[in-house]
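Q: Could you fold this chain for me?
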Amino acid sequence: MDGDRFHDLWGRLGGGSEADRIFQALSERYDEPHRYYHTADHIVYCLSSYDRATGTMGQNDVVEMALWFHDAILEIGSAENEQLSADWFVELAGSYLPRELVTEVSQAILATRYREVTREVDAQFVMDVDLSGFGQPWKAFFADTCLLRQEASHLDDARFRAGQELFLERLLSWPGVFHTQYFQDQYETNAQENIHQLLEKLKQPDLWV
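A: Sure. Below is the predicted structure, expressed as structure tokens.
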């Protein structure tokens, strides 16, 4: 991850020299040994996807900060990682960044629970960036799924499959996987195809052997 980029963002939002310490803490989180998908590589991918989108959608510092922190906490087996990540951001940033901005970033992080379609512009942007990997070619998309399986090693195959199916079916129940026109144009077709193909593949016995 790019420490200079984080430092610049933190400064634009009103922070100071504490950016170095906070970036170090964030880097240590994403380097935890139990991570396979939700690593620094995922954050780099998200920021690259965000950068491509800004040509159409414009720069949004709230969205960028939310992307840095949205997977900061990964407790294996927890259903509250997004809440914990948002809380950790508030804990770190609350003394340095404007209160309203901290709240906005926290809410954007919470949107990555993917519980519902949202009309909040920042949340839509964050969600679409985070899901942009669904629009990759199949081989890369399925490779990400394999990393998620490694990360969920505490689950047996049946429970992992059930969780994946629940999430994928929820996305299919929405008007589209993506909320914004840019991401719909760039990724929706591939994402829909990948989801349907993965749902079929998950039916195969011994898929993860």
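A (continued): The first helix runs from residue 3 to 12.
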